[in-house]
Specification:
Elements (H helix, E strand, L loop, with lengths): L6 E4 L16 H20 L13 H19 L4 H15 L16 E2 L2 E2 L6 H5 L5 H18 L2 H10 L6 H18 L2 H18 L6 H16 L8 H12 L6 H26 L7 E4 L8 H24 L3 H4 L1 H10 L4 H4 L4 H19 L2 H7 L8 H18 L2 H17 L2 H4 L4 H14 L9 H8 L5 H31 L2
Helix pairs in contact: 1-2, 2-3, 3-16, 5-8, 5-14, 6-8, 7-8, 7-9, 7-11, 8-9, 8-22, 9-11, 9-22, 10-19, 10-21, 11-23, 12-14, 16-22, 18-19, 18-21, 19-21, 21-23
Length: about 500
């Protein structure tokens, strides 16, 4: 076999992400997909309330949210229009149909509880829906974007890429492994969104110079969100669902030691990461043997570059330790570089145009949909309709995980965990004896947190997915295939560990 050619990647060239690969459906196919999505939404809108099989008929507003949810999900999956546009449309539809500022004929007469013979429900505040775009996570995104813009402008990303990847050599497959392990490690102790923003900044110069006809860049681009999503599973503070699970357990008088969580979950994380590495190498082989990252010259030593370096380091430090040491939330920390860079002239009005506003709208739409599920009571209504406490123990544990990963695919994993954890904890407390041999209630709730983090098959599933998709190197189908495979494998590994060792690690 002839050796593959070596690719030398120079980071001195301007970095621009190219548009998504070809293969976009024709206009006719897009129209057909759009028609199918509309049909799905309208069918759910006009179906009899009893057709949904919920415990008690849904209210008018709940049914409308179901219709919007199914329409949005179909649009995000088939993509007849850009996915960020679907998010905007979702927010507008919710404002016009389920908010307290809905179109007049969409609401019953003042004081009436029924609408066409069906209980109307409590409208959602239009301010709450609009506030989805000002969600703290959006601010975290903006801070990440600003850091990325400044790092690229002053060539800090190139220097970091060389320094951090040096131990992994130049072999393309090992460079990929390096990105996976580094991203996962950061995500254990800091926001996976912040980690993804930072690592994609480092990766961008590499992606931009890889051959356009090679599949390797797809694997590299996918490696970051996978590693960030999976890495967060490793510690109680790695991702919000973990904190939600441990926080609720503490309210029940059950404390999970930091070390016990890591003892159980870090091996799970490593197994999933190694599997993901093999999967990416297999599905997206590199067309070159080596990737040599060349950084001409030294780091920029100008005063503004120094400001970037210091601010970058301080921001990462505060993301990791700020909450414990100073009580500063990661989302607040994200605005610090924005303020520093603006005041010092590191970034200008022109630089702000480089922020990926479409990504922000994409994420905001997912948040708005989560608000709809929560505020109308639909999410709780759906979960209450599933008799989890009547299922066999193992079926109940795994079923809860499947339900969680399904819901988290289309809405915030934090929102899903916040919705499911209290309900599942109540069910678990009623069957403690049955759960005892599987780690008890802690194992049940940790399984839910695990499942939430493994939902990564769509760009809207997690912020790291949205950030990676925005780079333009990934097709949605590639993300879906890898996300589903890694998610299923992760569920098998995670629940196997909880079932086999849960009682030993978490049992009292």
């Amino acid at each position: 076999m002839e050796p593959k050619e070596q690719l030398s990647t120079s980071l001195s060239e301007p970095q621009t992400a190219k548009s998504a690969p070809s293969g976009v459906p024709t206009d006719n196919k897009k129209l057909i997909c759009l028609g199918i999505c509309l049909a799905i939404g309208l069918l759910a809108w006009f179906l009899p309330a009893s057709a949904f099989g919920l415990k008690g008929d849904p209210t008018v507003l709940e049914q409308r949210v179901i219709a919007i949810f199914l329409f949005a999900a179909a649009m995000w999956i088939t993509e007849p229009i850009p996915i960020w546009t679907t998010s905007v449309l979702t927010m507008v539809l919710m404002l016009l149909t389920v908010s307290n500022s809905a179109i007049a004929f969409m609401a019953p007469e003042k004081g009436a509880e029924l609408y066409n013979g069906q209980i109307y429900g409590e409208p959602i505040s239009y301010k709450a829906i609009m506030a989805a775009f000002a969600d703290p996570t959006i601010m975290l995104f903006m801070g990440g974007f600003v850091l990325a813009i400044a790092a690229t402008k002053y060539k800090m990303d190139a220097g970091l890429a060389k320094a951090m990847l040096k131990p992994f050599g130049t072999r393309a497959e090992y460079v990929l492994l390096g990105f996976i392990l580094i991203s996962a490690t950061f995500s254990m102790f800091m926001s996976n969104t912040a980690t993804a923003a930072m690592m994609l900044t480092i990766l961008s110069p590499v992606l931009a110079t890889l051959p356009s006809d090679g599949k390797g860049k797809i694997g590299l681009a996918l490696a970051i969100p996978i590693a960030c999503n999976v890495g967060g599973i490793g510690t109680p503070i790695g991702t919000p669902p973990n904190a939600i699970a441990t926080g609720f357990l503490e309210k029940q008088g059950i404390e999970i030691a930091f070390g016990d969580w890591m003892l159980m979950m870090v091996p799970v994380v490593l197994i999933i990461l190694v599997f993901s590495w093999f999967l990416l190498v297999k599905l997206f082989p590199f067309s070159q043997r080596d990737i040599v990252i060349e950084v001409p010259g030294d780091f920029d030593k100008s005063p503004k570059a120094f400001i970037v370096y210091v601010t970058f380091g301080v921001t990462i430090f505060l993301w990791v330790f700020g909450k414990d040491l100073f009580g500063i939330n990661a989302n607040v920390v994200a605005l610090i570089p924005f303020a520093v860079f603006s005041i010092t002239g590191v970034i200008t009005k022109k630089d702000l145009a480089l922020i990926d506003w479409d990504v922000l709208w994409l994420v905001a739409g997912g948040f708005a949909l989560g608000i709809g599920l929560d505020k109308t009571g639909l999410g709780k209504h759906m979960v209450d309709s599933i008799p989890l406490d009547q299922w066999p123990t193992l079926v109940m544990m795994i079923g809860a995980g499947v339900l969680c990963i399904t819901m988290s695919t289309f809405m915030s994993n934090s929102g899903t965990a916040a919705l499911l954890v209290p309900i599942l904890a109540a069910a678990g407390m009623g069957m403690q004896e049955q759960l005892a041999s599987f780690g008890g209630v802690p194992a049940l709730l940790i399984g839910v947190a695990l499942s939430a983090s493994l939902a990564m098959s769509l760009p809207i599933s997690t912020p790291p997915n949205a950030l990676a998709y925005a780079k333009g190197f990934i097709q949605q189908k590639d993300m879906a295939v890898v996300g589903i495979i890694v998610g299923v494998f992760g569920m098998i590994v995670g629940y196997s560990a909880l079932i086999l060792f849960g009682n030993t690690v978490f049992g009292n």
